[in-house]
Amino acid sequence: MPDRLAPALESRDGSAILALAEELHYADLANFYAELDDDEDRDFMVQTLSPTTFSDILAELPDSLREEAINRYKPAQQRELLSALTDDDRVDVLQDVSEETQDSLLELLSTEEKELTETLLKYDEETAGGRMTTSIGRVTETLTVKAALDELRNLQDSAETLSRIFVVDERERPIGFVRLRDLAFASRDTPVRDIMLDVKETILATADQEEAATMVRKYDLLALPVVDESNRLLGAITYDDAMEILEEESTEDMEKQAGIAGEQSEESYLRTRILVHLRRRVGWLLVLGFLAIASGYVMIQFEPVLNSIFLLALFLPMVIATGGNTGGQAATMVIRAMSLGELEAKDSWQVAWKELRLGMLQGLILGLSLAATCLLLLPLLLPDSMVGLNLPHFTLAVSSALTIQVVASTLIGALLPIGARAIKLDPAVIAAPAITTIVDVSGMMIYFTTARLFLGV
Amino acid sequence: MPDRLAPALESRDGSAILALAEELHYADLANFYAELDDDEDRDFMVQTLSPTTFSDILAELPDSLREEAINRYKPAQQRELLSALTDDDRVDVLQDVSEETQDSLLELLSTEEKELTETLLKYDEETAGGRMTTSIGRVTETLTVKAALDELRNLQDSAETLSRIFVVDERERPIGFVRLRDLAFASRDTPVRDIMLDVKETILATADQEEAATMVRKYDLLALPVVDESNRLLGAITYDDAMEILEEESTEDMEKQAGIAGEQSEESYLRTRILVHLRRRVGWLLVLGFLAIASGYVMIQFEPVLNSIFLLALFLPMVIATGGNTGGQAATMVIRAMSLGELEAKDSWQVAWKELRLGMLQGLILGLSLAATCLLLLPLLLPDSMVGLNLPHFTLAVSSALTIQVVASTLIGALLPIGARAIKLDPAVIAAPAITTIVDVSGMMIYFTTARLFLGV
Fold first, then answer.
1. Which of A243, A358, A436 sits opposite B321 (nearest CB)?
2. Which residues of A touch B201 (CB under 8 A)?
3. Which residue in B180, B333, B382 has the most chain A C-beta atoms within 10 A of its own C-beta, making it the best mutation to test that interface?
4. Half-sphere exposure (CA, 13 Å, Cβ side) for A295?
5. B313 touches chain A (CB under 8 A)
6. Chain A from 113 to 172: CB within 8 A of any B CB
7. How far is residue A428 from each of residues A255, A261, B96, B143, B265, measured CA to CA in Å?
8. B266: pLDDT strictly greater than 80
9. Closest by Cα among B445, B399, B410, B450 to B324
10. pLDDT tens per residue, range B342-364
11. CB contact set of B14 (below 8 Å; sequence gap of 6+)
12. Which segment of A135-149, A287-301, B75-89, B420-434 scores lowest on mean pLDDT?
């Protein structure tokens, strides 16, 4: 269906666009708008759609496209657009525009809207307060069901969620919640108190958004109440915001582990400009590249060893790479377990003990496989290299190097993220690059040292 | 608060446990139960909690703990437990027990429950049908609001979601939905038709669960209707199931990219047994380890080059590692964009063109940095190595090797996942391991070939 938008736009067929906009989901409309390259195309879309319709699209647009989209409207239409946005989306949009635009847009709002928006703008974008909606239903426990429904009626269109209605005391503290279904089916004179359920979880407005989203997921919540330091109800994080946050955080974790720096771009991969991609990727490439010279330096120190038995080069990349692989596996497991809230600081010893045993098992399996390969296949595959080679000693050297490297790398991979968190560094950012470097250098040293030991070179 | 459970259990204080079970969220209770090591502790928990209370806990337990938990109850209690489960959780639980247990549990159900459960069991666990709930509200458009509410009243406690009530035609096809809030606030004689909204998205029961979850996220849905091939409404995927699915899939993607095989374990990192960890990790370690010998083999072929200018070893690990890093970055970006639904097959050329330019920019930056390092620092840091070395040629050799390696690896990293998907392989499983191997071998060849070219060795 979104395919019919392009021809309608090309032929400047306003009524066809309006009809399609009615049928399509605003997320698809936003995608379509974001993919438009032509300035006049965007202008025609904006001029055709009412500010109210466009408000839904605006909330779904990548941050960087928002300002220019808003500025295609005249102030009166901008006012309409801003009023149609939910409070959390309005704040989100205002956080993405320049200061002048923000100021001029704030002036368009009604006193009440402006006050609310300015309060919300004070919270950092990545906190529960910065992501919450304030358009929630709230009632007091002494109301009857009928009175509660009457109070909520005027929120019918504006509230972001009414499935959970919070019950507050006289100081606005959340003491429970009711499900809309219980209000809808209870007899009208039942007091709210009788159908109220416990609020088991709340979150501080200053808490990290990821913490809020994790609670929503863990406890299967529709809306998690957000409170201030005095436990007064400010708003709620809804399930759809939580889903968005969790996806963003997963993407960021993956990117960080691959050495991609900075904030995840809200624009799609294809829309993101090359220079933005470059800026996010080249930094770690440079750092890691120059750190890898350390590995080469170690190799140079062992020139005599390699020169006297050049066959050692055959398994050198294997030992180094296996360290990287096993360290990477352990780090991925531990980092993910930490971000799913499974691991606490007190579990460090347990992790270390688990990975030590696992590393030894892996090291033995890999070491024995390599030993078998050396003894059985080497004489067949590279018969020339056997001249003057003490095959049993050579086998012992390379396979024990592999075993040691695997044990060491597994431990390093598991413990570095824990260590990083202990000193308040982001495990995903620090661990992956550090692991590669450490494991490469240590692998090089282990390899040549065992060779010296067993081969006497 | 969960901290108070342990002492209560230790002193076998049943009433304290019951009181705490009332206060705590079932997700926390499930965590507590899963962490118990002692068989008698588990038994006491199960015997203390009613089957109805335990049903919520059971649904949150790791798959592998479910059967033994159920078998702690007598058949009459098992019946109670199973009836208290929502239909999708019941199916989920039955999928995780042995065949005999499944058969005997099915016999405990009422005819109606049994029939429904058997129908749902036919869908694969990882499809929309396998994850959907069938306890949803459905009404017809000719009903009045009053009649609709009366029909829905008996679902008040059993339905998993009533916030969205689906409107079906005489052949059970979804033609729209109503929000519970609109039912609650509309006048009682309004026809449902008048407050009905369009259903814009449905999903086939046989579709992959990830596709369903992605739609729920993209379109901010509370419940996505699931239909059969004749477009009849079967059930819905709710937002909380979608969130669970998305988290599972993100974890699996991360693990696959790190070369961790098989299904994500539902048990926490710490609870997962060592042999399970081992089985998931050691396979790729062996495969990748032995593939890395190819790299060593290339190195052996170039023995004369390395022997005549051993200083080449200084930058060899850097060139190899940088290829791995840049390939990994490109692959991570592309794989994530694919799993977020941003990239289609037709975008392949655009990706290739983008990454080619990006690779060239990165290659130039890295190559020039390395050239500057060689020319300026090498004579200072390793003066001895300058004897007989043609520094400009050496610089040209290593820095052009780095540039070529970066361009090649960026392209390989971006295109391999796309290629893997084109031949229906999982990009995350195939791409990451293949990239490491290919990039290591090609890096080795590029490095020594440029050395031969520019240094005449």
1. A436
2. 25
3. B333
4. 29
5. yes
6. 149, 152-153, 156, 159, 162-163
7. 9, 11, 33, 55, 21
8. no
9. B410
10. 888 888 899 999 999 999 999 99
11. B44, B48
12. B420-434
Give me the residues of B, 364-423, that contact A with CB < 8 A. Answer: 365-366, 369-370, 373, 402, 406
| Contact present, B224 and B201 (Cβ < 8 Å) | yes
Q: Does A316 touch chain B (CB under 8 A)?
A: yes
Nearest CA in chain A to B325: A285
Distance (Å, whole) CA A288 – CA A282: 10
How do B203-204 and B174-179 pair as beta strands?
Answer: unpaired
Residue B209 and residue B131: Cα distance in Å, rounded?
A: 7
Q: Is the pLDDT of residue B368 over 90?
A: yes
Domains of chain B: 2-122 (1.25.60.10), 131-247 (3.10.580.10), 274-455 (1.10.357.20)
Shortest Cα distance from B253 to chain A (angstroms)? Answer: 9
| pLDDT, mean over chain A | 91
Q: In this structure, how many other beta carbons lie within 10 angstroms of the beta carbon of residue B188?
A: 11
Please write the tens of the pLDDT for every residue from A54-74.
999 999 888 888 998 999 999
Strands across the sheet with A223-227, in order? A203-204, A223-227, A233-238
How far apart CA B162 and CA B179 sit, in angstroms, is 8
Q: What is the predicted pLDDT for the residue at A22? A: 87
- Give me the interface pTM, i.e. the ipTM: 0.86
Q: How many CB pairs under 8 A join A and B?
A: 329
At B9, list the tokens.
Answer: 């259990």
Q: What confidence score (pLDDT) does residue A2 get?
A: 66
How many Å apart are CA B215 and CA A97, to the nearest integer?
29
Which pLDDT tens digit goes with each residue over B181-226?
999 999 999 999 999 999 989 999 999 999 999 999 999 999 999 9
pLDDT digits (tens, 9 = 90+) for A167-214: 999 999 999 999 999 999 999 999 999 999 999 899 999 999 999 999
**Cα distance from B107 to chain A (closest Cα, Å)?**
30
- Residues of A within 8 A of B281 (CB-CB) are 326, 329, 358, 362
What is the SS3 assignment for A91?
Answer: helix
Which of A258, A293, A362 has the CB atom closest to B328's CB atom? A258
Cβ within 8 Å of residue A131, ≥6 positions away: A88, A125, A209, A212, A237, A241, A245
CA distance A81 to B319: 53
- How far is A46 from A312, CA to CA, in rounded Å? 67
pTM for this entry: 0.87
Would the CB atoms of B281 and A329 count as touching at under 8 Å?
yes
- H or E element in which residue B162 lies: strand B161-168
Å from A339 to nearest chain B CA?
10
- Relative to beta strand B203-204, strand B223-227 is parallel
Q: Cβ(A148)–Cβ(A139) under 8 Å?
A: yes
Name the residue in chain A with its Cα closest to that of B440: A317
Alpha carbons A341 and A151: distance in angstroms, whole number: 39
Q: Tell me which residues of chain A, numbers 188 to 217, contact chain B at a CB-CB cutoff of 8 Å.
A: 198, 200-201, 216-217
